[in-house]
Amino acid sequence: MRDESIFDLDELNEECGVFGIIGHADAAQLTYYGLHALQHRGQESAGIVTTDGTKFSVGRGTGLVTEVFNNNNIKQLHGATGIGHVRYSTTGGTGLANAQPLVFNYAKGELAIATNGNLVNAKKLRRELEESGSIFQTTTDTEVIAHLIARSAAPNLESAVKEALNCVVGAYALLIMTNDSLIVAQDPHGLRPLSMAKMGEATVFSSETCAFDVIGAEFVRDIEPGEMLIFDASGIRTTTFAPKAERAICSFEHVYFARPDSNVGGINVHAARKRMGRILAEEAPVEADVVTGVPDSSISAAIGFAEATGIPYELGLIKNRYVGRTFIQPSQELREQGVKMKLSAVRGVVSGKRVVMVDDSIVRGTTSRRIINMLREAGATEVHVRISSPPVKNPCFYGIDTPDRDQLIAANKTVEEIRQEIGADTLSFISVEGMLNAIGRPPGERNRGHCIACFTGAYPTVIEDELVLEGAKK
Ligand code: SF4
């Protein structure tokens, strides 16, 4: 969870975060606070839609939550029910048109929809819908779900949503709001996190539990894979919309994406990262003088590595916090300069020292090479790199922005070749088993209930879209 991640194309990026609340007079403001806590999951756009029971109020814009909303416009969002979204786009492109929640007028009234995730058959469904007359306003996967709902002949919204969700394949944590109902659903594999909390009489939903802590809501439970919750005039009910599938929570949520103070699948992210560091130390010990983590997401794992080895943890790398949104650097050359802008090595800590540098992942390898150079320029005599995820060899199709396979260094080189390319003295990755042990879900489910496809290539769903498949073949 590096908050500058959008500015660095050599990292994996989360796509979105969703937040919803029903039954609170300050729905808009609480959604604002919730989205602010989820900002690390998307910085391109933010949106809130509320309802007072008769009509929607809509606020959306490009930029950070604090750039889109202010005291004045948040007061214009009326009602006790609201859903919100922060977006980092992998599919659908940037821009206000794609900012969520999307709002539609359909035969039965207004409908707002916000999702976190990616569908692997969206292009196919979109083509079919367009061929039969649907006109799309955006290029997002989310709109595909909205069209499927709008076209359904089902007698009520609940049945229409069920029907739509049985057509789509992929990852989604989904919030749908009308003027008299809220529907919450999780994909059949539970790929993206979605949790529920209570705040007095109000019920709250969030991609991550850190948002509950911010607003003082009390965690109740995670939404189950394939579960759908309906809040409407007849009360609250839960149902399943799809046959039970293998649970496959994205393991990268624990490695990198989620905030350290969140619990994903009931397991605290910081604690899991520390265990990753400990296991990495057992799997790949090394003699060194200091351990440092690449800020911010690798610090927990670095602390775990230091604790397990007895090598002191030090702040050998400092993040420059005020690198702004203008640092979007498309070219390789500028990317490499960008790392320098964002991180500094602390000479007084690393000079003359053998350094263990713990990082959460290697994507293309360019960032690692720059950071290692930086440590050496600051006087480190040795740089031993330890990575708290297994080698990323396959693209993600479930809402994480990964490069195509030909750009993933671990898909094309051995660990020794990567070590040479990034200029480390030694390089080790945690094993898949080690990572799953560190996260610590109980045994019994395949991969302990996690998706590990970007490491192994075994995707939990079929991958239908031909464009998606092209990416995988590269
Ligand atoms: S492929 Fe990787 S990043 Fe994507 S959902 Fe699975 S574990 Fe997460």
TrEMBL record:
Catalytic activity: 5-phospho-beta-D-ribosylamine + L-glutamate + diphosphate = 5-phospho-alpha-D-ribose 1-diphosphate + L-glutamine + H2O
Positions annotated to bind Mg(2+): 297, 359-360
Pathway noted in the entry: Purine metabolism; IMP biosynthesis via de novo pathway; N(1)-(5-phospho-D-ribosyl)glycinamide from 5-phospho-alpha-D-ribose 1-diphosphate: step 1/2
Broad enzyme group: transferase
UniProt cofactor(s): [4Fe-4S] cluster; Mg(2+)
Pfam families: GATase_6 (PF13522)
SUPFAM superfamilies: N-terminal nucleophile aminohydrolases (Ntn hydrolases) (SSF56235), PRTase-like (SSF53271)
Keyword Membrane attributed: no
EC number of the protein: 2.4.2.14
Keyword set, alphabetical order: 4Fe-4S, Glutamine amidotransferase, Glycosyltransferase, Iron, Iron-sulfur, Magnesium, Metal-binding, Purine biosynthesis, Transferase
Record-annotated Glutamine amidotransferase type-2 domain positions: 16-234
Active site: 16
Binding site for [4Fe-4S] cluster: 250, 396, 451, 454
Co-factor remark: Binds 1 [4Fe-4S] cluster per subunit. Binds 1 Mg(2+) ion per subunit.
Role of this protein: Catalyzes the formation of phosphoribosylamine from phosphoribosylpyrophosphate (PRPP) and glutamine.
Family designation: In the C-terminal section; belongs to the purine/pyrimidine phosphoribosyltransferase family.
Protein known as: Amidophosphoribosyltransferase
Organism of origin: Laceyella putida
